[in-house]
Specification:
It is a single chain. With 226 residues, the protein is of the alpha/beta class. The chain is built from eight helices and eight strands. The strands form two sheets. Strands 1-2-4-3-5-6 form a six-stranded mixed sheet, sandwiched between helices. A two-stranded antiparallel ribbon has the order 7-8. Helix 2 packs across helix 3 and helix 5 crosses helix 6. It starts with 8 loop residues before the first strand and ends with a helix.
């Protein structure tokens, strides 16, 4: 049986922040006129191509939209790193949904993408009809934050895609089993060329607001999520 590899279309939308405008990238799969829109939102250090396999499976039924949250992937980096906050990401998604002309959406969110989905779904007149949360909930475990904080924003460089994949696998044990080919496919969009080598695709300054979290602010955030 011949497998047809469907590829996404890359678009950008202008969004407002405290210093002006930034461009947010999003990957779109399926027919542009399909009113059934599925948004897939990624985790803290990831990007929209994480959902390639899911999008290929669903793009006959949905128009699948996979944003690169600002500071990640093909999106701009913010001039003010304290703008890397869930509320600001929710506002960016509202702008994106207006651009794709989505009156209603189904939302799949992994980790941070789930938090963005919860924030959007909680708004009055929200377009979110169905919300799927993966690897996240209103309760954020302190040890999970500590584990992420141990590597978030560190200066990294790899000589090869394979070396980068091995490192990313070491910090992604919770992702479940993958073949070597699957893991390499997940790794390639996570890299930016840096001379003859590679560096992470995201702005290291996304770590700055993350490191300001205290037990009190974490408790307040959890109350908001509930």
């Amino acid at each position: 049986e011949r497998i047809i590899m469907v590829e996404p279309r890359l678009h950008h939308v202008q969004c407002l922040d405290t210093r002006g405008l930034h461009r947010m990238a999003y990957w779109e799969w399926g027919h542009v006129a399909n009113p059934k829109v599925l948004v897939c939102a990624h985790g803290l250090t990831r990007q929209g191509r994480d959902f390639d396999t899911l999008a290929r499976a669903l793009c006959d039924e949905y128009r699948v939209v996979c944003p690169d949250v600002v500071g990640r992937g093909q999106s701009d980096w913010l001039a003010d790193p304290m703008g890397y906050q869930i509320a600001a990401y929710v506002a960016d998604m509202v702008t994106m949904l207006a651009r794709v002309n989505a009156g209603t959406v189904h939302w799949v969110g992994t980790s941070m993408g789930g938090l963005i989905g919860m924030g959007l779904a909680s708004l009055a007149h929200s377009p979110v009809q169905r919300l799927v949360l993966n690897d996240v909930g209103p309760v954020i475990q302190a040890q999970a934050l500590q584990r992420i904080g141990a590597y978030l924003g560190l200066p990294m460089r790899w000589d090869s895609v394979e070396a980068a994949a091995a490192y990313m696998l070491s910090i992604s044990k919770g992702f479940g089993p993958h073949t070597e080919a699957q893991w390499l496919e997940l790794t390639r969009p996570m890299l930016r060329a840096d001379g003859a080598g590679f560096k992470p695709h995201y702005d290291p300054d996304i770590a700055l607001p993350f490191r300001t979290v205290t037990p009190d602010t974490a408790a307040a955030g959890e109350a908001q999520l509930w």
